[in-house]
Design brief:
Blueprint: H1 2-12, E1 15-18, E2 68-73, E3 76-81, H2 89-92, E4 97-100, E5 108-109, E6 115-122, E7 126-133, E8 148-150, E9 165-168, E10 176-177, E11 181-186, E12 189-195, H3 202-205, H4 214-218, E13 228-233, E14 248-255, H5 257-260, E15 281-283, E16 290-292, E17 302-306, H6 320-326, E18 335-338
Parallel strand pairs: 2-9, 4-5, 6-13
Antiparallel strand pairs: 1-18, 2-3, 3-4, 6-7, 7-12, 8-11, 9-10, 11-12, 13-14, 14-17, 15-16
Length: 340
């Protein structure tokens, strides 16, 4: 319905193009220089950034509007979900906030039992989490919503969510900004892929133009509901350039969810194949709060196998998401406002 309205408005010329002052994809920060708000645009059709990027113990909790997400390991990652219930992903993608598996990131923390299975994979060019959600309402998503895609692009170049940042210590042992990433949420499943910013093909592995194709196409995985595992992995084919099949994985370790999430957690899951990586103590992006990121040795079953197909919904983000990726190839990418 939105697509038809958009095309009709485009044909009639009744559209207004408004460029962001600075594309989110060009905003680069070190962990200690993250500003309070990345997006400082005012007066644009989508409004202002709803949250903030400098997150710490004073912002953490069920009302947090933190928009700096983390992906470190099987037990320590965040994804994007609504700050309040009642609207679909397609309606609220620009306002998503970080929901994390662990406290300490200044964000919202998922309640116990939210995730029923997760696979974390460390590939040569990216890290990825792919998993299953017991009840989408636990993270303010509408039950039954097939969802959509969040990424650092968007029609107005402000990203979805606007001003959303992603950091990881999985590549170097210290927090670095992940420039290219995509996160699909919906159908009681999720996937988040973070591409190594040091790689020559980070934009290709983390494509943002296949928003209606969902996790299986963009981030094929061997994830299984009821299983929590961390694996090394080959690279998948670049989305759109090969068969969307899970790449071969190895060094897989499985864990009980109660050992890695919640108040009873005792295990810090190491990154597969990163035994030689040194993890440093990293300050949070405020002078008053510090935390450390470490990888501990664990005893777990280790296997080598070829990833098998896991079910994932194809997502279709309405409204702004459709506009974002319809206009994504234009030189002057812009937000479309229908004049009614």
């Amino acid at each position: 319905m939105f697509k038809a309205a958009f095309l009709a408005a485009l044909a009639s010329g009744a559209v207004l193009f408004v460029l962001a002052q600075g594309p989110l994809i060009d905003k680069r920060y070190t962990w200690d220089t993250i500003p309070y708000k990345v997006d400082t645009d005012v007066g644009l059709p989508r409004g202002e950034q709803v949250g903030y990027n400098r997150c710490n113990s004073t912002t953490e909790g069920p009302e947090s509007l933190c928009q700096t997400a983390i992906i470190n390991s099987l037990d320590d990652f965040c994804f994007w979900a609504p700050p309040s219930p009642g609207r679909s992903v397609g309606e609220i993608e620009g306002e998503m906030v970080a929901w994390c598996t662990q406290p300490g990131h200044g964000a919202r923390v998922m309640v116990d039992g939210t995730l029923t299975g997760v696979q974390f994979t460390k590939a040569p060019d990216y890290v990825q989490v792919w998993g299953f959600i017991s009840d989408q309402s636990r993270i303010n998503m509408v039950p039954g919503d097939a969802g959509g895609e969040m990424d650092p692009h968007g029609a107005d170049q402000r990203g979805n969510p606007m001003g959303g940042l992603l950091f990881s210590n999985a590549f170097t042992g210290v927090y670095i900004q992940v420039v290219e990433w995509h996160n699909f949420m919906g159908g009681n499943q999720f996937c988040l892929k973070a591409c190594d910013p040091r790689g020559a093909q980070d934009a290709e592995f983390c494509q943002h133009i296949f928003d209606t194709q969902g996790c299986q196409f963009n981030a094929p995985s061997g994830a299984r509901d009821g299983v929590f595992e961390s694996c090394a992995s080959d690279n998948q084919p670049i989305p759109g350039q090969g068969a969307a099949i899970p790449p071969a994985s190895s060094l897989c370790s499985t864990f009980a969810s109660t050992d890695i999430f919640g108040p009873s957690a005792t295990v810090r899951v190491p990154i597969p194949g990163a035994s030689t990586m040194s993890f440093s103590t990293i300050p949070r992006p405020t002078p008053s709060t510090t935390s450390s990121s470490s990888a501990a040795s664990t005893t777990a079953a280790t296997t080598s196998r070829t990833g098998s197909a896991a079910g994932a919904s194809s997502t279709s983000a309405a409204g702004a998401s459709y506009v974002a990726h319809t206009l994504g190839g234009m030189v002057a990418v812009a937000l479309v406002v229908l004049m009614v």
